[in-house]
Design goal:
Length: 146
Amino acid sequence: MSVIKRSSSRDAALQEAFGAEVAELYAQAARGEANAALQRALELRSFLAVAEEQVARVRDRVHAATAADGDMDDLSAEDLRWDADWLQAALAGRDGYTAALDELLRTMPPPNQVAVSRAGVSPKIAATAPSAPAASRARAVRTRRP
């Protein structure tokens, strides 16, 4: 399944921040209409969706292995240790992507705020550093020796 069709725990936050459904946000990016914040948010969302799917797979595997009606002879402590390690890694990835996406959404400017053009706004610097005396500049030049 495409990452676009997978849900993630931050889809509502993305929709609120960018004012469109997730599928439409991906469509905007595909058409080249996405700004840098949206592009980064969608990339993080894609990683998050995959990480959350991995967490769910391991969780479901552990639930199936430890089900009350399961065969005790099929239960393996070694398999559960591997699943615990895999779950820890998947959760760490998920937590990292969630934190990064939340930080991006928290720090980006509001959607109704128009970016201020920097053309003609920056002041010109009139002062210049004094030039070094000719003698000190000459000493700075390396010469090749045969």
